[in-house]
Design goal:
It is built from two helices and eight strands, in the order ααββββββββ. It is α/β, with parallel strands linked by helices. It folds into two domains: 32 residues; 90 residues, Sandwich (Immunoglobulin-like).
């Protein structure tokens, strides 16, 4: 190889490396899925698997999910609240404003839950 062909090869290799790196950068931006923030879940129409905690109530009071589905609770109010199974299966602990808690439901059935600090707040997850 003479100096001119070595230089041409080096330039072509560098250009190819830059092109590949540029494409990798473009595709890497789309790899991860960003979940909505708790604040975003408290505005607009909530996704079907979201239970909002607001004004000392769970909304909706009954949420239906398929077996293997995830339910997300989000506290949209000023007071701390929780989501706790009536049978002790789960307990989110206290959720501050815009905090979320999620749980996957693998078993079909009806799962009543309540807020520990405010036991009059009650609702149900129905897994089909």
């Amino acid at each position: 190889m003479n100096a001119k062909s070595t230089y041409s090869f080096a330039c072509a290799a560098f250009a190819a490396a830059v092109a590949v790196a540029s494409l990798a950068g473009c595709f890497s931006e789309h790899v991860g899925i960003t979940q909505p923030s708790g604040e975003a879940l408290c505005t607009g129409v909530p996704p079907a698997n979201v239970v909002r905690i607001q004004d000392f109530a769970f909304s909706p009071a009954q949420i239906n999910v398929a077996r293997g589905g995830t339910v997300i609770w989000v506290n949209c109010g000023q007071q701390q609240h929780s989501s706790a199974s009536d049978t002790g299966v789960w307990d989110s602990g206290l959720l501050a404003r815009f905090a979320t808690y999620s749980r996957v439901f693998d078993t079909a059935g009806s799962f009543p839950f309540h807020c520990n600090p405010h036991p009059f707040m009650q609702a149900t997850v129905v897994v089909q």
